[in-house]
Amino acid sequence: MSEEDRAAKAARAKALLKKRQQKKAADSTSVAADSSVTSSATPPRTFSPAPSEPVETDGRDLGDVFSKDTSDTSWLSSLPRAASPPPPPAPHVASTVRRVSAGPPNPSIPVSSEGTSESISSRELSALQEKLAALTKENETLAATVSRLKAFETAAQQAEASLEAERKRVEELQENLQKFQEDSEIALQNEHQTVALLVSEKAHLTAELQRRDDLESKVQALEDQLEAERSKSNNLADQVSRLKKEVQDTTQRARQSEAKEKDLLDRFKDQERQLQLASTSAAESRKEAEESQRKLRELEEQVQSDDRVERLEASLKNTQDRAAELEFQLTKLKQAHSSLKSERDNLETKVTEAAAKEAELSAQISKLETEISSVREELAKVKDERDSLSQEKTRLQQLSEAHETTIKGHQEKLASAESSLTGQARQIQSIQTELKNANRRADDAEKTQKSLQAEGTKLMQALDEMRPKIVELTAVKLELGEKIESLEHTIRNRDSVIVQLENDLGEARQQNEQMEEVWKQRLAEQEKRHREVQNGSADIQKAYNELQEDLDTALASLRNLESERTNQHQEASRRLEEIERLQHLTQTQGEELENLRRELEARRKSHDEEQDFLERTQNEIEALRAEISARDLEIERLQEVVNSPTNSDAPRTLDDEMLSSLRQQHAMDLSAATSQIRALENTIFDKDSLNHSLQKQINALEEQLSQLRSHSRLGGVPSRPSSRAMEHHGTRRSSLSMHSHRSNQHQPAPLSRTIFDHVMSPETLHKRKVSLSMLKARIESETQTPSLPPSRALSPVHSEGHSHKSSPTGNRPSTPHHTHVRRPQFLDESHVFWCHSCQGDLVIL
User: 764 by DSSP, 3-state: which?
Assistant: First the structure.
């Protein structure tokens, strides 16, 4: 049974006890009365009649007592609690029963009938007989109950004895539990100590692992240093190979310098030969000069008035000039000879120094080769040691992996032991709770025992309830014994595991100590070797640095020689290139001059053609203007005729209609002529702008031509900017003056020119002329636009008349004009602005 079922049963029992106690308190009075009646059943009052109601209640109570329902046991509470020994009441009750049973055959009825013959009837007698029969039955049942009570008392005594035995057992169990708790506490303390030892061992192992990691890191650092040394040795080998190559290069350069020296010697010999030839030629020329002077003297003496004297003097001057040039060349050759001698001496000294340095370098290279061979041997040894160390490292790694696996196994065992310990602690706690429950149950059993002593009727139920509890307690006891045995077995296993772990830890410590000693020895040897290798590499580096310095000095000297030679060659080649460039530049400049001249001629021709076209267009414009003025006069005349008062009231005839049609036709022709004039003005403006741009291009070409001429005059030497600007200004002025002269020749005579016009330059005059023409066109358009009707289009004749009438002065003829959209006039580089308030003045920005 579970604890919940037991608790439920205990709660039910408590509830039943409370109910029964309440019933006892309610029925105590009636039960006391019944007990007094039964106890006072003496022989003299056996025949006295009793009231009917208590007898009925007694019968009901006896039926309840001997009924099959065992749940109601309240009648047992009325029994005395062991006040008198149980055996004596039995014979007393039996005697009373016997007396009661023997009563009816005695002659007691007639006695009573004699005393009460008058009052009792036959019905009462029959009732009394029935009551006696009932009393006899009650006596029999009471005897049976007494026998049963005796059996109950014996059973209660046996239950008390069993309860005392159970109490003793519970006390023994409590003592065993206390001992088990003490043992478990001791075992827990031992386990805690072992766990602490294991934790310390774990920390020690982690520290050892860290040491091992440090050793591995040191080994890795040593390997890195070894690789660095290898790289350094490789670098040294590369440097040695470079030095060999450089030595070979220096030897080749020395050979080349020797060959160059031979070439220089050959050149020197050639120059000496040329010098000898020049000296011989100079001597011959001197002899020739002396002979010529002698001949000249002779000729002067012979022929003083001959014309050949001048020729001879000229030839003499030529020979003297040639002799001076030869002397100058001879001095130059002597200077070159001395410089070549000094260069040869310097080269010889440098060659000797280079040979000495080459010998030193060869000796140093041989030393380096020997050192490199020794370093290679040391490297081979280091490689062998590295291989052995790598093998040792792999072996140690395997050992460390094995140790790690064992440590992991021990850690797993420790974790399992800890889990088992926690499980045991939980089991102990559950056992303690069960023991507490058992103590509570024992207390409940004591309470039930007290209640059994107080209530005899509950003994059977208490025994029935106690039997499973006793069985449960025995089962719990057996379970506790099994758990104790299992805990002891686990503790033994844990002790064996701890001993095994301690042995493994001792072996691991010994192995780690041995490995540490081996590593320390090898590290010391490796450090010694590394120091030796470092010392050797430092010596090699020093020797290499010295060799490098010597090589640098030798190479610097060779480079200086080569740079001097290359500088001389470059100077000579540069001068030759400059001469060629100047020649080529003169040729290209001559070609460009020819091209520019041709282009200038073509531009001038095109400009002349454009000027002719402009003159023709201006003549056409003047003719059109004259025609327009004639038409305007005719229109005015016709308007006067039309507006005369004689014809205003007359009806319109065929002539008038013809006249109006002619006027319309004339207006159409006039508008077409004005549009043609506008188109011609636009073309004139375009041509003027094109002429202006061509003039700019001509000016630029003339500037280029002047620059080229200045270059050609100075022979490639660039002129100063001031002279160039002056020439540019002069050429520009000359070109502008030429252009203005040509344009003035072709164009008609302008209007009256002011003093400012003579002062202005041709460009400003040209701009002013163009802007004035534009201004004139705008003024005409501004004067014609107000005459047009804004709302509806009238006939041309009517509009002309209206404009004629509206004009304040009739001196200037107004030109008829259709609705014409004004187009903006543009120049190439200057904007011309005009307003109504200027009154014909020009503003140029």
Answer: helix
